[in-house]
Amino acid sequence: MKLPVVAYGMPVLRKKGKAIDKDYPGLQKLIDDMFETMYASEGVGLAAPQIDKSIRLFVVDAEPFGNLEGVSEQEKERLKGKRVFINAKILEETGKEWNFTEGCLSIPGINEDVKRKEKITIEYYDRDFNKHTEEIDGLLARVIQHEYDHIEGILFTDRLSPIKKRLLKRKLENISKGKVNVSYRMKFPKK
Questions:
Q1: Which helix (H) or strand (E) segment is 150 a member of?
Q2: What is the rounded average pLDDT for all residues in the chain?
């Protein structure tokens, strides 16, 4: 089932998500619904806060990034596949910081360069509650960092310079007021 994506300005996007266990009600259906919502919205990642659930869960399928110019065959392979991250914790971020243009389903129409470290070490549980500790780099690391920020109550716009934030203020206000045109269902703050 396609779920509505919550818009910038919804309080849930600013809350740190709570850890869940394998008995979380309807977890497998929720994961399936999140993937369906993400694909229907043409995203490469979706975090539970974006569907109004303040829990530590996000899903990723970064395969579309494999179509970008200059992406190596090796990286294309790493980007393939549906991945589920439950109770994720980034243990380390290393390497040089690099800019990449990011967008967000909760902040439609705004795309800005964000600096992030090139490599992460992350600990998480998969959809079957198997624990993993993994080192990930490149575009996949970036997508994971973006989604991880969501479960920490951080938005990519928080990582922009104060000048950029001021320039985007009106656009962000319009999004929170529902003045946005998207092809997917959204949920906006109550007035």
A1: helix 138-151
A2: 96
Residues 6+ apart with CB under 8 A from 181: none
Q: pLDDT tens, 48-98? A: 999 999 999 999 999 998 888 888 898 888 889 999 999 999 999 999 999
| Residue 147 appears among annotated catalytic residues | yes
Report the pLDDT value the prediction gives residue 69, as an integer from 0 to 100. Answer: 87
Which fold is adopted by the domain 5-187? Peptide Deformylase (3.90.45)
Backbone dihedral angles phi then psi of residue 7, each to the nearest 5 degrees = -90, 155
Q: How many CA within 13 A on the CB side of residue 126?
A: 9
Determine which one of 69, 75, 97, 147 is catalytic. Answer: 147
Helix then strand then coil, % of the chain, to nearest 5: 35, 30, 35
- Residue 151: alpha-carbon gap to chain centroid: 9
- Between CA 121 and CA 144 the distance in angstroms is 11
pLDDT digits (tens, 9 = 90+) for 11-26: 999 999 999 999 999 9
